[in-house]
Amino acid sequence: MKTIKIERFGGLLKEESLSCIEDEILLKDTCVLESVSPFFGYYEEKGEGSKPLYLYLMLDDHHSVEEILRSVNEIIKIAGFKFDAVQAEITVPGFPPVSAVRVRDLANYNQIATLQEYFIKFGLQFKKKSRNLDRNMSLIRIEKFFFLEELGEGMYFDLQQDHHGYFEIPRKIEWKAFCELTKEVKFDTDLLFFDACTAYFFMENSIVDLVRIYKEHLDKDALAAIRDRYLKLFPKYSG
């Protein structure tokens, strides 16, 4: 069967525990947050596995998707090391949202300051550290391009990131309701050990709402089983 590959622009909303990185490995007077437990719905419950590194370079002001994407494209040409970066917005409870650049795929922490210097060169300004965050649960909004393999029946695999799958849902669901829905989905013990968040992409003048699933060695059958459970319970939580 021929693989159907699609590219879409959209975003996702997730919740993760964030902590400040120690100042000495950053540019002076800047703030970078690290996801302490990325995909915690999978790794914290399963209790094993090598967690990927996700960083958030906090910005002093809002920068558009275009500004950040242009900067990233230029930096990739000259940096000499691998990384992926997209626009993000971080909301720590009790504080207003702050713009950020979400960075993944860095080989080590020593590359952070170099990457910061490149972003400054291309016009971004970083937020000064004003408070110390230590495992603060925070909402993270990301805007990005998705590169997907279409599986049929409203399901997709991510072609850029391993272990990521998506399936369509009938409409947008509020975050708190989605968390409650996910808890009930996991009552089915056959579906344990996955992380979930909401997502969307634009297609043909409309918005397609999705659930993103993270599970190591995720296959189509496992994704379909999780999808079926979500869709069965979805009317109970979506209003």
Description:
The chain is α+β, with helices and mostly antiparallel strands and 239 residues long. It has 2 domains: 8-139, no CATH class; 146-237. The chain has helices at 40-46, 65-78, 111-121, 175-185, 220-237, and strands at 4-20, 32-35, 54-58, 84-91, 98-104, 136-152, 155-158, 164-168, 195-203, 206-214. Strands 1, 2, 3, 4, 5, 6, 7, 8, 9 and 10 form a 10-stranded antiparallel β-sheet that branches. Strand 7 (155-158) and strand 8 (164-168) form a beta hairpin. Helix 4 crosses helix 5 (220-237). The radius of gyration is 18 Å and the shape is globular. It starts with a strand and ends with a helix.
> What's the Cα radius of gyration?
18 Å
Q: N-to-C terminal Cα separation, in Å?
A: 39 Å
Oligomer: single chain
The structural class is alpha+beta
Largest sheet: 10 strands, antiparallel
Please tally the helical runs, counting DSSP H or I stretches of 4 or more residues: 5
Number of strands: 10
Proportion in helices: 25-40%
Dominant shape: globular
Average pLDDT figure: 92
Elements, N to C (H/E): EEHEHEEHEEEHEEH
Beta-strand fraction estimate: 35-45%
Number of domains: 2
Unreliable parts: none
Summarize the structure.
The chain is α+β, with helices and mostly antiparallel strands and 239 residues long.
List keywords for this structure.
239 residues, alpha+beta, 10-stranded antiparallel sheet, 36% strand, globular
Topology:
Blueprint: E1 4-20, E2 32-35, H1 40-46, E3 54-58, H2 65-78, E4 84-91, E5 98-104, H3 111-121, E6 136-152, E7 155-158, E8 164-168, H4 175-185, E9 195-203, E10 206-214, H5 220-237
Helix pairs in contact: 4-5
